Amino acid sequence: MAAAAAAAVGGQQPSQPELPASGLALDKAATAAHLKAALSRPDNRAGAEELQALLERVLSAERPLAAAAGGEDAAAAAGGGGGPGAAEEEALEWCKCLLAGGGGYDEFCAAVRAYDPAALCGLVWTANFVAYRCRTCGISPCMSLCAECFHQGDHTGHDFNMFRSQAGGACDCGDSNVMRESGFCKRHQIKSSSNIPCVPKDLLMMSEFVLPRFIFCLIQYLREGYNEPAADGPSEKDLNKVLQLLEPQISFLEDLTKMGGAMRSVLTQVLTNQQNYKDLTSGLGENACVKKSHEKYLIALKSSGLTYPEDKLVYGVQEPSAGTSSLAVQGLLAFEFPVETSIVYNCIATTLYFMHVYKVYQFINVTVCNANFIFLQDDQDGSQGLGKRKRVKLSSGTKDQSIMDVLKHKSFLEELLFWTIKYEFPQKMVTFLLNMLPDQEYKVAFTKTFVQHYAFIMKTLKKSHESDTMSNRIVHISVQLFSNEELARQVTEECQLLDIMVTVLLYMMESCLIKSELQDEENSLHVVVNCGEALLKNNTYWPLVSDFINILSHQSVAKRFLEDHGLLVTWMNFVSFFQGMNLNKRELNEHVEFESQTYYAAFAAELEACAQPMWGLLSHCKVRETQEYTRNVVRYCLEALQDWFDAINFVDEPAPNQVTFHLPLHRYYAMFLSKAVKCQELDLDSVLPDQEMLMKLMIHPLQIQASLAEIHSNMWVRNGLQIKGQAMTYVQSHFCNSMIDPDIYLLQVCASRLDPDYFISSVFERFKVVDLLTMASQHQNTVLDAEHERSMLEGALTFLVILLSLRLHLGMSDDEILRAEMVAQLCMNDRTHSSLLDLIPENPNPKSGIIPGSYSFESVLSAVADFKAPVFEPGGSMQQGMYTPKAEVWDQEFDPVMVILRTVYRRDVQSAMDRYTAFLKQSGKFPGNPWPPYKKRTSLHPSYKGLMRLLHCKTLHIVLFTLLYKILMDHQNLSEHVLCMVLYLIELGLENSAEEESDEEASVGGPERCHDSWFPGSNLVSNMRHFINYVRVRVPETAPEVKRDSPASTSSDNLGSFQNSGTAQVFSLVAERRKKFQEIINRSSSEANQVVRPKTSSKWSAPGSAPQLTTAILEIKESILSLLIKLHHKLSGKQNSYYPPWLDDIEILIQPEIPKYSHGDGITAVERILLKAASQSRMNKRIIEEICRKVTPPVPPKKVTAAEKKTLDKEERRQKARERQQKLLAEFASRQKSFMETAMDVDSPENDIPMEITTAEPQVSEAVYDCVICGQSGPSSEDRPTGLVVLLQASSVLGQCRDNVEPKKLPITEEEQIYPWDTCAAVHDVRLSLLQRYFKDSSCLLAVSIGWEGGVYVQTCGHTLHIDCHKSYMESLRNDQVLQGFSVDKGEFTCPLCRQFANSVLPCYPGSNVENNPWQRPSNKSIQDLIKEVEELQGRPGAFPSETNLSKEMESVMKDIKNTTQKKYRDYSKTPGSPDNDFLFMYSVARTNLELELIHRGGNLCSGGASTAGKRSCLNQLFHVLALHMRLYSIDSEYNPWRKLTQLEEMNPQLGYEEQQPEVPILYHDVTSLLLIQILMMPQPLRKDHFTCIVKVLFTLLYTQALAELSVKCSEEDRSAWKHAGALKKSTCDAEKSYEVLLSFVISELSKGKLYHEEGTQECAMVNPIAWSPESMEKYLQDFCLPFLRITSLLQHHLFGEDLPSCQEEEEFSVLASCLGLLPTFYQTEHPFISASCLDWPVPAFDIITQWCFEIKSFTERHAEQGKALLIQESKWKLPHLLQLPENYNTIFQYYHRKTCSVCTKVPKDPAVCLVCGTFVCLKGLCCKQQSYCECVLHSQNCGAGTGIFLLINASVIIIIRGHRFCLWGSVYLDAHGEEDRDLRRGKPLYICKERYKVLEQQWISHTFDHINKRWGPHYNGL
Hints:
- The protein is of the alpha+beta class.
- The protein has a six-stranded antiparallel sheet. It has a three-stranded antiparallel sheet with strand order 3-2-4. The protein has a three-stranded antiparallel sheet with strand order 17-16-20.
- The two termini are 62 Å apart.
- It contains 77 helices and 28 strands.
- The chain is 50% helix and 6% strand.
């Protein structure tokens, strides 16, 4: 079959006769069926030819070519003439028909899918796709799963996370090479292929014929479309155009791959069949079009710097003669044959040639690396100048046909990949190639093809402009191929994958090499990468490096690498390109002009290109059997290092003022050494070089340590901030174990093998503090400024302490290391779980063992730390869950050395010490300021025992002795830190001394040991007691020592008497080091170096050679022990303070580890050391006792020189200034505090002034206000009004109240949608529009309140200011250039005192204090008189007050209030601009504020009192402003509802109903609105008795409404029963106060109309099934009236300052009623309370009720339905709530992150959901933009009147929009460790934190977003 197919596809058949036209006209299906039948016959030649002809015609590539004949416009033409337009559509249709063989294409697809044997998922995704990774199930670290497979598998309790794919990927479910089978999902749990039936032969037969032509056609298009670019690469535009045209074809192929395994195997056959490819593409048929396309292909190859192998054979040929074809010029023809014959020979030549080339290939692969290395060597030894060295190239002999340059395509797959690379990896092509991967055969073929093109990929990547995108696409492919160990091994063996990768990397880096300037700038032969090049700056190399790391993670591949010497040599060569890169030179004069940021690139390059492959290799060197690998690496590493030292001309002194942080070769060497000793049991000495090499190795890492100290001492400050950045990156957690740790380890190794005196003196010389180490009080430092000496000395000592006490590579186990790291991080600060994971340096190679989040991490964490759950601070800032060290960790494990090593910022060390101090104080272990505790170390691995010799060498002892002496004598430049480190070193020495020490000191070791007379031996224990009498020092002539008489006579006597301790010589560390170095060099007698010696020595003049120094002899007479005891006295400030503890308790010597000494300060440390010294040697014990017996003379007072005096004075002056400043600040703070207190009390002086009702003539006191700007106090006046600082904001919180208790849930399925029709706002809207339909507009606008949505809420911080002061304050804010978080132009500002956000000032009405208002006394007038007075007062027109400042301000604040909300929330009138609108808006503002205050109090007034809201309330002032404006609109007295409430009118049944709309019946009015209208129409201030009168009258109406509603809601039977029952009692005396009588009357009045007639269908819903008992009816009536009573009581509280009583919920009605004066005073409380007893009818009850019911009767005669609906008022609203969120965040995420936008039906990039109403919106989505407003901003205006609360789905964060500003609020979803996961970076499961959500809801309800959240920014309508 395949042969037939191949024949059919071949290009050289005789051309077919044209099919008759009728054949074309036949419909496609019939043709396809006919062909299928023809091909199914045994002899199918004819059918094959017919199909061939058809495909030729349908898929012809001639059309694009013909169009292209015009010239260069090929790309455009490909889209023009015959590009994928109609013809291409047609071609695709034909293909689909042919594949289906005449049937339907969809049925065909379904049929093929049925035979899908693939047990792999293989779903391919692109960047930004959300996938999962489970570390528990993964075998490869790159394993990933699609969401569907993840959720269908069982991963409970696993360590998994969700992530957004960066480069794209594919699902690994079902692939047991990459993940464990237990993690497969239900669909992919291994299906055995046996139960999948065999594919019927004829199903895919047509595909086998059609697809090769189709793919060839695609390749022709790709060839055509590619135009060889101009110099700067093809314009992306052209390439994209071609790709766009090919979109349908590639999509078609992609769809084929999705049909499953059966189709994929056909495609694999087609793509990899070499014969097909050869026949179709050789370009040698008569078909001109094919030829042309082949030429384009060859040009493309050439231009890519690749050669088609046949070129090689043609190179010897002279210019082709005119007769030969143009193809010959392309170098295609093998020999000079005439064209025709060449065709025949071509195939043979090619085959023969190829066999030859393949052999060459294999040879090259083996030799190329070695050649490369040899070439480098030649170059270095040869004397060619530098020009040659600038670019290191492979030697030319092998270059032409190397890995880099030859490409020969043998199948469609290979050429397709070639074009995919050429076109820079178009996403569609990548997806198609990856979709095929589940086919195993294809996977192998594709991997080999990919490897074959690897060098070409690198070249294209380097040239690409879009290298980021391209990198991602490359990795998308390669990670699928190289993660599979079996496949990687196969390709390594068959295709030399490792050689290719290493060579390609080497080539890539070669393009950016520069000469190294390290050490010997002129003669250096070393080249390094230039970190400024784009290649490094943009990380262009990362795809290649990441592939390399990926394959090295496979054991079998890594083994091959470690065994291959040639490869190792090449690799070390590659690593050496990074050795010494990014060199820093210290600026000594000018500050650098331009701070280069190249260091990012350098650190990234070392980590990614050098360290990570190193960790990869190390992970395979874990056992003894792998020793050989380590030996190989170490060997070639040392060779590379030796070459490097030679290349930079290094002898023994580093060049001054230079440092590079990049020494990858040193670090490779160090890490392999460490591994060798730790895991492979190798003998350390067998892999160490000679002493001279060790000396060289130590220099550069030591230089880095010294430079770190210099940088922290600000000696590099002229190099700019970037140098600090480098020092910090070097120790930062992601870098430290690849940088500072190996460096310190290497130094430890060198120190353990080199002479200790040499090492110690090297350290002090490198740190430039040699000159400081003198006994003299003055010295000269030739290499260091005095101001840097102290910190450099501290640096040197700290380094020594770290070097001697760090055990990371010297014997600690992995778990111990983890524990130490964790303790160090926790001691610096409490940490969240994720930051701990991030801060603990993990082995960068994923297969290393300690994986973050692994079992050991969690168990160590729980052992050392306690979890602190997330808490809220009162300020509203939210804490995360934190881990804090356990007490025993502070007690026993706090290790300051580890903390110092790991701190990036120096302040962290201080922070750790502060926390330690706090712990000791708290636990009562030590009250004072403790010193860092001394921690015992784990034991050293035997290989490194030599390290401890540093502690027992004379050089160190001399240094310690000198420093102790200097500290005791108060020499300058010594700090407590120095003393601390000195004591630490002494203690380390005592801990690590030789086991036993003979008590009688023999004269140790002959004369060569006594080159000086400082100390006799090298053991610290014995040297401690050695007395030093005289010291000869070199001092400047000015030094005080010179003036004294030199005690020459005594000194000689002493020399006689004390033979063992003569005068100690001048001790020069430098000379010491030179001597040692010389010895070592002589030993290794390398003459070459001897020659250079003078040159280096002359560079540094040995300190002390300066002429003005003179020698003096000092009398010392101290030993280390005596100095320590004197220090004890000095520190404690007492004479003879030290008393040896063992004199009381001898036991203490045997067991010196006593908790008493573990924490404390310097005194404790000294005591501990003396105790250890005594317990180690009896002699020491005796000498200590002797010293203590002698009374110590006091320490000589310090002589103060003039210069020092000056600095002291300066210090003193500074100190005094500081104290003065503190005092002033304290005074200011207390003033501000008292000021705050008085300012806060402005609003509620009721605490201070008792109510004096009894006084005959009360004093009217004016209210006094403090201005927080000018600080003056005074009343508010007409001319200079004072105002309250207020924030006006529109609010829709009230509108969100619902009447059901169950809060709404956020929708998480399509079915759950939220509809807003049961919200308070919707109900009120419906009511108003219903009224407006039937009644007069102006009357409707007085019958309701608005402001449920977009109402204006006014709040204040309680501070007042003069309005003129405020204006100047605003002016100053306007001129302030500082970026503020608010907009001054919109009137926004922050309160000058408390900084609370505000945007207006509310004028305070001049006048008396609220409380002792003369109007407040009760009068004894009857209710009728009061009613008349009220009517009269309302009738007086409100004259507009005269033009005063106050009235102007009142006007402007009213304008502000109006502008706060949108027009649509203010205009409800049918006639725009009607005054009724303003009137309605004004009293609704009062209503909104009262209702909101009620909500803030929890919806009722049971708690009573003036809550905090009350204390800062501005309602009183607001009322004045509103009343002043409302009095301007006088209501026509006929229409005044007051008349209807208090007077009986003539009822005219024949009222002309028709001519105009009637007024709203009084029973339909909202009573609370009426209350506000009545009160605001009265002149202010209002009298209390008028207020009570209004309330009484309105209560009668309210009660009647309650009865009417009750009558409508109950059933017909209940109604008639009540009607009769009440009628019987009508004649009783208090009938007017009996609800039964009144109810019966209301029913009888209303039943006159048609109100009850509509009983029947829908009204049954309202029928209440419970039987009405008197109790339930009473409860019903009370509940109906309560909202009104609450609002009224609040109003009374604000207007008259009366306190609200507190009560139980059940008695709230009666308490409020009596508080409002509704209850008669003589009311007896023993009866059960009846609400009707509060009624006080102004006119006979039955008459007025009749009048009210009449209005309704006339309306219901026409509109019974509506009449009934309007009687029912929903009064029982529940408190507003945000939507309820699900427990698990994943529920929200999975539903919303794939949800499409309703506007553009695409999935939005940043989806968000409103937490108030559940609407799905696109954040920043341009699709939903309306008039420059993005959707979130629009929604916040429509849903919350400018306030929006949105949950960002992809970030789990909540964002608040308030007006024109927005802020990130935080997240209400936390992970198991109490942490937010912003942007879902960690992808761990998140759970709702109810407390946080409550806080969010609280801030929404109380309108405090502006005050609590501090970080606001403008959103410019772009959210």
